[in-house]
Design a protein that fits this description.
Oligomer: single chain
Number of helices: 15
Strand order of the largest sheet: 8-7-9-10-13
Number of strands: 13
Radius of gyration: 23 Å
Order of helices and strands: HEHEHHHEEEEHHEHEHEHEHHHHHEEE
Shape: globular
Largest sheet: 5 strands, mixed
Helix content: 25-40%
Distance between the termini: 48 Å
Structural class: alpha/beta
């Protein structure tokens, strides 16, 4: 393909529903030895994006995932979540989790199927994961070389709520459910175990970030946290509350904070039903599970108090999940002073 053909293709792509991310390239660095722009290199490095018209036209409550949410959450909470995350619907009532970056560019959409009764993913032929950019590529050869660069699900909310702390989970479903319970946090999803990384985390600079890995994935995300903390200037912690309280079977199947929330809601509903019946059951709720007895509770350290003062929602999260502050043993690296780790977490604070 000649430079003229490539230039024409790029211009055509810019005029269609898919185009490059604005201002993402410094073209002065793409000049070849002849003094002309190197369009081959430009095309290879630019990040392609999808028109927001796809997001607008797909927005819908008519997915099995949203139907599942109605079993446990009030309509106003679901409406807010659908609006915040621009949840869409595709054929067979599959949900679309759009990846919209902090510049409001639409990178792609993740299409998934859920059982409307259990909330579990359906993984048969019609329920397998698909991507909006793949569908676009199949419709036209022009988009055959669509250059996908993924971002965090929910990333567009960072600019809307600049003062909110951030919680990151693995699954998009978990981020949506978390946002309906702890709305003072911005809930992002990495998309998969390996979706937490430094390039995507550059948007978290100067943020307070709390990681909630799935059961069985704590050590892997803890290692990622160390790498990210060396590349991105942010306060990042990781919670092991799911890891410590998951059963062996739950560890095997990737139990996460959303599963915990749904289980507690189920218990609360069952308790409420039996209060009017003949069987009574122990009371469980999100406020007292994992809590210590009063005599075991400790006063927060000055560092944690300062953090809780800056982020009042952190106090609520610690109390609802019954988390506790830990202390590192003195080492030469911290000159004999223990460093607080809030809420049963490992912290790296840069």
């Amino acid at each position: 393909m000649s430079n003229n053909e490539i230039r024409k293709e790029r211009e055509n792509r810019g005029n269609t529903l898919v185009g490059g991310q604005p201002n993402q390239l410094n073209q002065t660095n793409k000049i070849n030895q002849t003094g002309n722009l190197n369009y081959v290199e430009i095309l290879q490095n630019k990040i392609d994006c999808i028109s927001p018209r796809y997001v607008i036209s797909s927005k819908s409550y008519n997915s099995n995932f949203v139907e599942f949410l109605h079993n446990y959450f009030p309509r106003e909470k679901i409406r807010e979540a659908v609006d915040n995350y621009a949840l869409g619907a595709a054929s067979y009532k599959r949900v679309i989790f759009w990846q919209i970056d902090n510049n409001d560019n639409v990178r792609t959409g993740k299409i998934m199927q859920y059982n409307p009764h259990t909330g579990k993913r359906v993984k048969n032929e019609k329920g397998g994961i698909n991507w909006v950019h793949n569908i676009i590529k199949k419709r036209s050869a022009v988009f055959e070389h669509y250059n996908l660069c993924q971002c965090y699900f929910g990333e567009h909310l960072l600019n809307l709520y600049p003062d909110k702390p951030v919680a990151i989970v693995e699954a998009e479903k978990t981020a949506v459910i978390g946002s309906m319970i702890y709305s003072d946090f911005i809930w992002l999803a990495a998309g998969n175990l390996h979706g937490l990384n430094s390039p995507k985390s550059k948007v978290l600079r100067d943020r307070y970030v709390l990681l909630y890995p799935d059961a069985g994935c704590y050590e892997k995300w803890k290692a990622k946290l160390k790498k990210i903390s060396s590349d991105v200037h942010c306060t990042m912690e990781i919670s092991d509350v799911v890891e410590k309280h998951a059963t062996e079977q739950q560890l095997e199947y990737g139990y996460d904070i959303a599963d915990y929330i749904i289980d507690k809601i189920k218990e609360e509903n069952e308790t409420a039903e039996t209060e009017n019946g003949c069987v009574s059951r122990p009371e469980h709720n999100l406020d007292n599970t994992f809590e210590n007895t009063p005599e075991e509770k400790k006063q927060p350290s000055p560092t944690l108090e300062k953090m809780m003062s800056r982020y009042p929602s952190l106090t609520e999260l610690i109390e609802k999940l019954g988390l506790e502050e830990c202390q590192l043993q003195p080492t030469t690296a911290n000159h004999g002073q223990s460093r607080p780790i809030a809420a049963k977490c490992s912290q790296i604070d840069r």
